[in-house]
Fold:
Amino acid sequence: MGAFTAGALTLPAAPTWPGLLAGTALIGLATAPLGAVASTELQRAVPADRWAEGFSLVFVVQEPGSWPARRRSVCCRRP
Structure:
């Protein structure tokens, strides 16, 4: 979580391209292992014959958080 916090603090502190890249890299270093842990724990919690349903449910639950931003960028552009 230290890398995630450092990346989040780097973004507003250094509003330049190098600061953006450094902050994004630090956040990426933190979120990739968290995603791997979540996937591994899901495999342990869901029976092997129900993995498709389990992973589908997780992706559906995570999707609404990214939907408004994507909708604005794709559907609501001004000419």
Remarks:
- Helices lie at 2-13, 17-45, 51-62, 67-75.
